Amino acid sequence: MTVPPRPGGPAALLRRTLGLRPDAPVLAPLCAIAGAGAVLAAGYAFAAGWLTPQRLTPARVIDGFQADFGQHPGFRRNHAKGICVVGHFDGSGLASAYSSASVFQPLRVPVIGRFAVPGGNPAAPDTGSPVRSLALEFQLPGGEQWRTGMNNTPIFVVNTPKAFYENLLASRPDPATGKPDPARLKAFFDSHPESAPFRAWTKAHPGTSSLLNTAFYSINAFRFVDAHGQTHPVRWSLAPELPAAPLEPSQKADKNALQDDLLRRLAQGPARWHLQIQLAAPGDPEDDATRAWPADRPLVDAGVLTLERAIDQGDGPCRDVNFDPTILPRGIQVSNDPLLAARSGAYSRSYNLRTHEVAALQNNARQGGAQ
Amino acid sequence: MTPTRFSLASRLLHWTMAPLLIAMLLVGTGMVATVSHWRLTLLALHKPLGLALLVLAVLRLLLRLAGRTPPLPPSLPAPLRLAAHASHWLLYACMLAMPLIGWAMLSAGGFPLPLHLPPLGAPDVAPNVARYALLRSMHTLVGELFYLTVIAHILAGLLHALLLRDGVFRAISLGRKP
User: What's the whole-model pTM score?
Assistant: First the structure.
């Protein structure tokens, strides 16, 4: 049976269906409801970045790493090759004039750390890149933590997330050679003069013979907050007690030269570094990781880091730690360096991907073992 | 006598939490989709606000369970009646689940917790990778379900307020006029 069309059109039909009065307003309410739905959907779309495809997101940065280095499930998307270390930190008390963080009091806190090689390849040679990293998690009283990711270079190659992403694109391996296109890289560096100090530094500082005689730097500036609420712009570094010695040519042939050296040396005894806090002078840039502060800025010896043991990252305590440099205790704050939020976002994306992969691998292993 | 409106306390809580919940869902969505300084600013807002909304949600659930609920008008068809009840309990479930999942997720990942909270379900210094991965996915999925349910709830509310004018919206509104 078909319903014959009735006079009044769709509005009248809707009134009858809903049992409304014949003169009840219909069009304006429907428009308002549709408008509210559109605003709510647009709000979500904006927040999620769907309306701004040019916005740099953590997912795009991590996709860039995967495009450059391939898929390596369960590993970090950058600094994929690494080794866990454990030890402790003894605060000297000297830095507590500048920061109220408990780590700077004269007390000992446990530390979990990780030495690593840049790039997303978990089988990369230890000495293939001039850059090495050391990430640390200081476990403070009361559940507080201080996480820091340091490099052996006092400055970084670029000073914005956008330039970092462009560097990633310029480093994409050429399908023909499997290596980055030198012309593309040169074009990137030519158009990014801020990268010149970093390139000059790595050229002038060939690698050292061991991770234990390498110095590490905070890369970015941070802010210390003292007990009176005063802020102090700072950078920090770890100065090794072992004197620096140049990398031997024989070490370059061995893919695991530095990890093996680390395991061997720590088996004989712990290694120590002094945590040095560099205090900025007014005008020193806090937001530019490509520019070092002048060498005459005062240094405060905040304490001694002692590393006692190295453990394979496959089941070591550093595997499931996200060394996000914005995880800070009371008394330390981020600066306005734009790289810090980008590092936090990209590390988090990498962490979420790899923890899912590790969980799946563990699950597969359990099921495989049960069969 | 059955009430025609929710208690004043329930209505005040509803309209206090409504903008905060919408803001919270958009903040959570936005902070993981940017590498700008907004990530850190929004993250610093997200955690304490989430805890505050958990406290308000518990209070609201207790008020709802203790108080009497105004009935839906008899004119409302049975399927819509069912949808109304189901979506309300889904909203309560999401309000409670989101902050608890977030708290347990940070605990399982070994992250430091804001406001000196104790870890929920796992120690805060030894990450439990499988539990973290599960909770991290749930935080996103439940959040998306929450936002969709909020949209449906708002549109249904406007339908009652503007088109049906059947007293359902008045039961939760703060307006004085009958």
Answer: 0.94
Mean pLDDT (whole number) for A327-350:
98
For A223, phi then psi, to 5°, come to -125, 130
What mean pLDDT value characterizes chain A?
95
Angle at A161 between CA A156 and CA A163, to 5 degrees: 75
Is-contact A244 A274, C-beta < 8 A? no
Would you say A340 and B40 are in contact if contact means Cβ atoms under 8 Å apart? yes
Least confident of A343-347, B80-84, B122-126: B122-126
The pLDDT, as a whole number, for residue B126 is 79
Pairing mode, strands A222-225 and A332-334: antiparallel
Given the cut 0.90, state whether the ipTM is greater than it: yes
Q: CA separation (Å) from A180 to A67, A120, A186, B94, B161?
A: 12, 14, 11, 48, 62
Dist CA A319 CA A324 (whole Å): 13
Separation CA A56–CA A339 (nearest Å): 12
**What does the longest C-alpha to C-alpha distance in chain B come to?**
58
Q: Work out the end-to-end distance of chain A between its first and last CA atoms, rounded to an integer number of angstroms.
A: 62
Of A267, A277, A335, A330, nearest to A302 by C-alpha is A277
What gap in Å lies between CA A119 and CA A173, rounded to an integer? Answer: 12
Give CA–CA dist A222/A226, Å, rounded.
13
Q: Identify all chain A residues contacting B155, using CB atoms and an 8 Å cutoff.
A: 33, 36-37
Which active-site residues of A does the annotation give? 79
Alpha helices per DSSP H over A110-216:
161-170, 182-190, 196-204
**A104 Cβ contact list (under 8 Å, min separation 6):** A91, A92, A93, A94, A95, A96, A98, A302, A303, A331
Residue B124 has its nearest CB partner, among A46, A143, A338, at A143
Q: Which two tokens stand for residue A88?
A: 């402790």
CA distance B131 to B120: 12
Residue A1 is predicted with a pLDDT of 44
For chains A and B, what is the number of CB pairs under 8 angstroms?
Answer: 138
Q: For residues A95 and A91, what is the distance between their CA atoms, to the nearest angstrom?
A: 8
| Rounded-to-integer distance, Cα A132 and Cα A262, Å | 13
Structure tokens belonging to residue B117: 């909270």
Q: Do A32 and B162 touch (CB under 8 A)?
A: yes
Which value, in Å, is the radius of gyration of the alpha carbons in chain A? Answer: 27
Amino acid at B39: R
Q: Count the residues in chain B.
A: 178
Report CB contact under 8 Å: A48, B30: yes
Chain segment A136-179, per-residue pLDDT in tens:
999 999 999 999 999 999 999 999 999 999 999 999 999 999 89
